Amino acid sequence: MKPLKIISGILALGFWGRSFYAWTYFNAHEPHAPDNISGRVLPLSTHGSVVYLTPGEQNLLYGLIGAGAAFFLLAASFYYSQRKQAR
């Protein structure tokens, strides 16, 4: 059980880090105006700075965030189930 807890914790941290990197990358490099021709129509707002993403970029970003949250919850459930068994 301990290796699964460690692996899920590392994966949670990795996915969270990648989602943070992707968010800041998109915020710095994507256009600040929508472009229907290229498909950049989905807004991403970061503290007042709005950039426009394609559906694929948005799916990547929210997929990374969701995977990080899922692995965090998995690691937390391993931690609490192991702690409960020790009592």
Briefly say what this structure is.
By secondary structure, this protein is mainly α. The protein contains 2 helices and 2 strands.
Describe this structure in words.
There is one protein chain. With 87 residues, the protein is mostly helical. It has one domain. The protein is built from 2 helices and 2 strands. It has helices at 2-29, 55-86; strands at residues 42-46, 49-53. A two-stranded antiparallel sheet has the order 1-2. Helix 1 runs antiparallel to helix 2 (55-86). It is elongated.
Rg estimate, integer Å: 17 Å
SSE order: HEEH
What is the average per-residue confidence, as pLDDT, rounded to a whole number?
93
Beta-strand residue percentage: 5-15%
Helix percentage: 55-70%
The CA-CA distance between the termini, in Å, is 16 Å
Structural class of the secondary structure composition? mainly alpha
Strand order of the largest sheet: 1-2
The biggest beta sheet reads: 2 strands, antiparallel
**Dominant shape:** elongated
Number of strands: 2
Helix count, DSSP H or I runs of 4 or more residues: 2
